[in-house]
Write a structure and sequence with these properties.
single chain, alpha+beta, 3 helices, 36% helix
Length: 84
Amino acid sequence: MKFQTAKITERGTVTIPEQFRKKYGFITGDRVIFIGETSGLFLKSARNVDFKELDRILEKTKKIKPRHNLTAEQMDELNERLFR
C-alpha cells in the first residue's frame, strides 16, 4: 500500500501507521524532520542525519525545473485524483 490516512488530534499529533513505521524503521522515541515543500510535507527520520548535507540537497531541489507547466496546486489536485 502506498498511502494510508491518519487523523490529526487537537494537539496536532498524528500516528504513523504501523506498516510505514516498520518499512522505514521508525521506533518509539525517534525524532523526525518535517520538510515543507511546494508539493507537500515530507517526513524523515532524524536518526543519522547530516543536517548540512540535507540543507545542500534541499537547495539543489529548489533549482530543479519541472518538465511540465502545472502549478503546485494543479499537481496536488492531480495526485488527489490519482490516489483516491
